Amino acid sequence: MKKIVLLFTLLVSMVGYTYAQKYAYVDTKYILDNIPAYHAAQDQLDKISKQYQKELETLHAELDQMYKDFQAESVLLSDDMKRRREDVIVSKEKEYKKLQRQYFGPEGDLYKKREALIKPIQDDVYNAIQEIAEQGSYAVIFDRSSGMSMLYTNPKYDLSDQVLQKLGYKN
């Protein structure tokens, strides 16, 4: 009998503990959309990306023209001249691919620039969320904008505006 009472008491206390936990959610997309520095950083990244893309397109057009010229003149060239032209085209292709990796690769210039411009803003947002979670004793704060499905959310548990206020945006 004591075991049953002890088990029941333990079960009731666990249920009470789970009901005492607080949950909330934020929408980081909404938060970032309301931070002007984020928009400025995105615009700067877009400009850089377009510049890199334009440079690569120009290089690719040169490469295409070199290949077309080679195709048109190949019947007139000696084997030695053909080999030299092919070598030039291959080296130009390597240069193109290297530049492409340098700009858009996983550790490329655009990635590094994004890290320098966007990551500090995201870190500020996550730090503000963490502070709010600690101050409000929230057990879990979900991000509504991520891939997680939330079928229903009560707006009273949305802390997005609180995060913006903590960061100094919006009243």
Helix count, per DSSP?
A: 7
Strand order of the largest sheet: 1-2
Q: Note the gap between the termini.
A: 58 Å
> Which H/E pattern describes the elements?
HEHHHHHEH
Counting structural domains, the number is 1
Beta-strand percent range: 5-15%
Instruction: Give the CA-based shape.
Output: rod-shaped
> Uncertain segments of ≥5 residues (pLDDT<50)?
none
Helix content: over 70%
Counting helices, strands and paired strands, the structural category is: mainly alpha
The overall pLDDT average reads 84
Organism: Prolixibacter bellariivorans
Family: Belongs to the Skp family.
GO cellular component, one term: cytosol
GO molecular function: unfolded protein binding
Characteristic key phrases:
about 170 residues; mainly alpha; two-stranded parallel sheet; 7 helices; about 70% helix; rod-shaped
